[in-house]
Amino acid sequence: GKVLVLNGPNLNRLGKREPEIYGKETLADIVKRLESIAKDDNISLDSKQSNHEGVLIDWIHDAEGTYDGIIFNPGAYTHTSIALRDAISSISIPVIEVHLSNVHKRETFRHQSMLAPVCAGQIVGLGSKGYELALQYFINHIIRKSG
Ligand code: DQA
To answer: What was the ipTM of the complex prediction?
Structure first.
């Protein structure tokens, strides 16, 4: 089994970026923990981050055939990008949308996701734990298919 962890714009700034909202952990810290979970379960995990919409689109296209699922924090593109939505629609592997913060208790422009309707599911507001829960879901339900 193979899972892609994909992070969009400004998530390379985690740890420094508004820590009261996004926490003090860096993206590397989060990925390290995900890698250790994956390793224990014999799953391989790749992590990619880009600030560029088109790059994210290319990686989504390329993921099909290589990965069993994508854990995706699209950052602010969540709320704007029909192109990313169409990219997710164009592939057959499941995508789980993850947000560190609870977007529903923030500005109204963060309440809508362009991507959620074409994702397998969405996890919001649980901090970095959300990525772990998404990984567990892929391992247990998509890769191992145990219920
Ligand atoms: C975010 C929420 C988005 O609204 C914001 O633009 C981000 C991070 C989150 O993880 O909480 O960049 O996706």
So the answer is: 0.99
